[in-house]
Design goal:
Blueprint (H helix, E strand, L loop, with lengths): L7 E2 L4 E2 L5 H11 L5 H13 L9 H14 L3 E5 L5 H9 L5 E6 L3 H11 L3 H4 L2 E5 L2 H10 L6 E6 L6 H11 E10 L13 H14 L4 E6 L5 E6 L2
Parallel strand pairs: 3-4, 3-6, 4-5, 6-7
Antiparallel strand pairs: 1-2, 7-9, 8-9
Pfam family, one: Methyltransf_3
Keywords: Methyltransferase, S-adenosyl-L-methionine, Transferase
InterPro entries: Cation-dep_OMT, SAM-dependent_MTases_sf, SAM_O-MeTrfase
Length: 234
């Protein structure tokens, strides 16, 4: 069958694409022409050395985020889910010299082991990234408490799926009008169609909250494992 629901092969920890592999390969190749050597080095290091390397976001998703940051001239970015720092690096590449990425995760083991040795080869990029260890919910609430609501241009959500609805609401408060949220894994291997597990139910809930929210424009894209693209109305 040419098209099939994406499934998780637990023995190999890989994903079976929703589209034919030849199409996936073609679109990835065309979409990643601006992928930098440092991004490629971090991707290769993650795939080779990181635990659960499947957790790294798709390269074409990171490139789409870079394009959005360029389009809306973001200077401040929220990055929820650090892992090895690949997404934070992508956003830093596109930000101006005075830009800032606040990247959040409850575990920095893979960042320290794999990501930082690569990212620190580019001190100017590293200086743009504020890696914060701890609950992203707490970090986002602290930013709101510090008076930073409506000051961020872009937010990327790629962390624990149960908290997507909470991350969304907090990010929306922190985004300036015209700001963009990109939520990764919004199709959750296709299981959102008939959600039965905790993760698929949480993501389905999140997708439907966004779709019914009159504060935003949204579109759910069939890219990699699904990207929900959300713009805060001006």
């Amino acid at each position: 069958e040419q098209f099939s629901i994406m499934e998780t092969d637990k023995s190999k920890m890989r994903k079976v694409p929703l589209q034919p592999s030849s199409i996936v390969q073609y679109t990835t190749e065309i979409s990643t022409t601006s992928f930098t050597p440092l991004q490629k080095e971090l991707l290769d290091a993650t795939l080779e050395h990181a635990d659960l390397s499947i957790m790294i976001g798709a390269s074409e998703v990171h490139e789409m985020g870079k394009m959005i940051i360029n389009l809306n001239k973001s200077k401040k970015v929220l990055d929820i889910g650090t892992f090895t720092g690949a997404s934070a690096l992508a956003w830093a590449i596109e930000l101006p010299d005075d830009g800032k990425v606040i990247s959040m995760d409850v575990d920095h083991a893979q960042l320290v082991k794999v990501g930082l040795p690569v990212i620190e080869k580019a001190p100017k990029l590293r200086a743009k990234i504020d890696f914060r260890l701890g609950s992203a919910v707490d970090t986002l609430k602290s930013l709101i408490a510090n008076g930073e609501s409506a000051t961020f241009g872009f937010a990327f959500i790629d962390a624990d799926k149960y908290n997507y609805p909470i991350y969304y609401e907090l990010c929306l408060q922190l985004l300036a009008p015209g700001g963009v949220i990109m939520a990764d894994n919004a199709l959750w291997n296709g299981y959102v169609v008939e959600p039965t597990g905790r993760c698929s139910q949480a993501i389905d809930k999140f997708n439907r909250i966004v779709a019914s929210d009159d504060r935003v424009h949204n579109i759910l894209l069939n890219i990699d494992d699904g990207v929900h693209l959300i713009t805060k109305k001006q």
